[in-house]
Predict the structure.
Amino acid sequence: MHAAESKQAKDIVVLDVREATSFADYFLICTGANVRQGQAIADEISKQLRDVGERPSSLEGYGNAEWVLLDYGDLVIHVFSPKARAYYDLERLWRDSKPLEW
């Protein structure tokens, strides 16, 4: 969360999805203002998690950065452009999940 915040990610939300799905425990959802910022957010998150020995099992969407998905197993990170975040509206799709304070 702080890694995303350090790169000025907006509207950072952490959802506890443990009761809604079996493929992840938490979603981190945030927004970057443009392609470059979205990539910078994803890079910083990856760097800070790599520094503690974590590597993603999957990285999707980095090139155009409309929706960058970093899959760390129990934690799935979604970095959206403003347009893609409004379109996919994951908070609505996962509305039964509990938002966490951080």
